[in-house]
Amino acid sequence: MKYFSTKNKNRPFSFKEVVIKGLPDDNGLFMPETFPKYDSDFFESLSEKSIDQIATEVIYPFVKEDIPENVLRDICENAFNFKVPLTEVKPSFYSMELYHGPTLAFKDFGARFMAGCMGFFASENDTEVNILAATSGDTGGAVAAGFYKTNGVKVTILYPKGKVSELQERQLTTLGENITAIEVDGTFDDCQKLVKKAFLDEELNKKINLSSANSINVARLLPQSVYYFYAWSRLKSDKNKIVFAVPSGNFGNITGGLFARMMGLPIDNFIAATNVNKVVPDYLDQGEFLPRPSIQTVSNAMDVGNPSNFERLMAIFNKNWQLTRQIIKGYYYTDEETLDAISHVHQKYGYILDPHGAVGYKALSSYLNGRTNTTGILLETAHPIKFAEHVEKSIGEKLKIPEEISDLYDKEILKIPMGKAYSEFKDYLLEKSGVKIK
Ligand SMILES: *Cc1c(COP(=O)(O)O)cnc(C)c1O
């Protein structure tokens, strides 16, 4: 499989190159040149396979020049090693819980798969890779957990002091081993500036091998197409169409679903559900893409004013607005509606949603209203405990601490406090890598 930038069809890249590079230099995004097309026999065979087996089969054509099948199988076994329940919330309405991984959100799939690929490439080249990532809370945790104990890869995560939740801080700071958490006395922007500066620092890059774990890396998208195949294989029936509702921010998760559709998975519609950061629903409605500053909401992982994967949606649909809106249906909701949905679903069905899932619930319910012969699958992207304050208020009950994180509160916190000055950060990176500072 070759990959190209969405902005340049002349220069092909290998899978290994796009994983290590993350982003092309021309401001575009990497996309596979083609998609393998599967036939009905393939789809029928999926119902007998486990999710990690499905992952290996679906992903292999995209990586086969760079990753041997047996290595890919190990990577997938490790990335898909937690349960993915499909819970029936109400008739013909399922919640696919993508939140049983170590950081309790769907980003664990992408982060763990990408970590596996990078770990393999590092071992192949016998080099040490240093991943740098700034986080406002969530992504950093998924990356840190994904790379935990990966040979040949060291991870440094920068987070703003006092601006992440206690749970998030514990997820970043209790791992140890090859994961280092730096607590920056500043904002998320300050953290990001330090990381950006390090990537642009030629002297530093000559001495150590830096890499990013960017959320728009192709290696994070491919595993996000797998659970669409999985859910379809478990819930398909001859009578019903299947649709997916995806709580969306940067639109990476829904892009994974569109990849599955390009491979032949028979899905008519995807439901893009957002909070009031509704640039994509507005585009679907009016035909114009107008990025704007983000607005803070209770479903804060979707507070995105300029979704980075919009470029990929345009590539998939050839910039054809009519075609895009035929396949993707946009819906958006306010915080009040979101919190009401949490309360309503708990009362009526005894099921607990997180705020992101609640936005998706509203959208899917609205879409299904009046449509018969359709099974709706909601991608529940985060565990309610991650947003305990809002959820507990909405349902009027305390949430139980899930077993996935029950030991987090007994572990020792390891962090390196630091100021905002770049020189301090650079010295730290050099020293950690054993490079002498003059
Ligand atoms: C990241 C995230 C989203 C949005 O996913 P995108 O791929 O950015 O659209 C939704 N819900 C949760 C809980 C997330 O962490």
TrEMBL record:
<dbReference type="InterPro" id="IPR004450">
    <property type="entry name" value="Thr_synthase-like"/>
</dbReference>
<dbReference type="InterPro" id="IPR001926">
    <property type="entry name" value="TrpB-like_PALP"/>
</dbReference>
<keyword id="KW-0456">Lyase</keyword>
<dbReference type="Pfam" id="PF14821">
    <property type="entry name" value="Thr_synth_N"/>
</dbReference>
<dbReference type="InterPro" id="IPR029144">
    <property type="entry name" value="Thr_synth_N"/>
</dbReference>
<comment type="similarity">
    <text>Belongs to the threonine synthase family.</text>
</comment>
<dbReference type="GO" id="GO:0004795">
    <property type="term" value="F:threonine synthase activity"/>
</dbReference>
<protein>
    <recommendedName>
        <fullName>Threonine synthase</fullName>
        <ecNumber>4.2.3.1</ecNumber>
    </recommendedName>
</protein>
<dbReference type="InterPro" id="IPR051166">
    <property type="entry name" value="Threonine_Synthase"/>
</dbReference>
<dbReference type="InterPro" id="IPR036052">
    <property type="entry name" value="TrpB-like_PALP_sf"/>
</dbReference>
<feature type="modified residue" description="N6-(pyridoxal phosphate)lysine">
    <location>
        <position position="107"/>
    </location>
</feature>
<dbReference type="InterPro" id="IPR037158">
    <property type="entry name" value="Thr_synth_N_sf"/>
</dbReference>
<keyword id="KW-0663">Pyridoxal phosphate</keyword>
<feature type="domain" description="Tryptophan synthase beta chain-like PALP">
    <location>
        <begin position="96"/>
        <end position="364"/>
    </location>
</feature>
<dbReference type="Pfam" id="PF00291">
    <property type="entry name" value="PALP"/>
</dbReference>
<dbReference type="GO" id="GO:0009088">
    <property type="term" value="P:threonine biosynthetic process"/>
</dbReference>
<feature type="domain" description="Threonine synthase N-terminal">
    <location>
        <begin position="2"/>
        <end position="80"/>
    </location>
</feature>
